[in-house]
């Protein structure tokens, strides 16, 4: 077809409406996008988010496995806030674990010069057992702003004072803690009632054996909750009676006037397997009667120790500060402790 001026105008007259529709479509698309961004996106912002940590009090709750009540700051702490970073730790485990968490915080603070604080959930557990803990609860500075340049989880990466160190739950730093072994023993001083109760146990054993003096050996036997854990993590079985009997015989050969005081989560098993034919063995633990603090105080009051595994027994032996026979469990923190402290021996 011959393109004349008339044809040209007709063709372009047909295109112009199509162009208008295209422009209108683009404009509507932009309007829809703007509407979604302004009016719909905020709906997603109102969904529950992790609580923003503005103050150390908010931070403390994130470290605990239980809910904390609002903190009451002592008057003497009202105007105190850390100038630099702090050292603290997350809560994990029971008494023995939380002793390591506390001790690791204590040792890292001593090494770095940063102020140490522990969450109230840990402080409450330890304050029921020990007197005059030197590390204050984090709630004492709950009113202070949580401002730090960075937070790291190991003292190995600490490089400047405004860095805070947050140790993970189940933290165990024996190399650092046992640099000051005597000092950490002094840190964990038992409540008077626990000391008196443990001394009664020692006196009773001495009276039953009709001796004026005795060498006391504390034994920790852990069974009920450790069977599956040992197999899952170490492919090992629980320590059998033979281990404990051999360890007791070692001390019997060394001392003529010895008494063995057993603390355990399975006193029935101990009664059946460790007392046969021996009058010098006493099972101290009573299910539902004695507390972990009482059992630990008895271990600490002894001269020497026999332990299998677990942080509870390790601390009992550390606090007793004597010769220790321990079960051979590879890659366990107790083995590292035995390498750091004198008179610790692995059997089997």
TrEMBL record:
It is a single-pass type II membrane protein. CDD domains: Fut1_Fut2_like. The chain crosses the membrane at residues 21-44. It is found in: Golgi apparatus, Golgi stack membrane. One of its GO terms (molecular function) is galactoside 2-alpha-L-fucosyltransferase activity. Pathway: Protein modification; protein glycosylation. GO terms for biological process: carbohydrate metabolic process. Its EC number is 2.4.1.-. It comes from the Eukaryota. Its main location: Golgi. GO terms for cellular component: Golgi cisterna membrane. Keywords: Glycoprotein, Glycosyltransferase, Golgi apparatus, Membrane, Signal-anchor, Transferase, Transmembrane, Transmembrane helix. InterPro entries: Glyco_trans_11. PANTHER family: GALACTOSIDE 2-L-FUCOSYLTRANSFERASE, L-FUCOSYLTRANSFERASE. Belongs to the glycosyltransferase 11 family. This is L-Fucosyltransferase. It comes from Zootermopsis nevadensis.
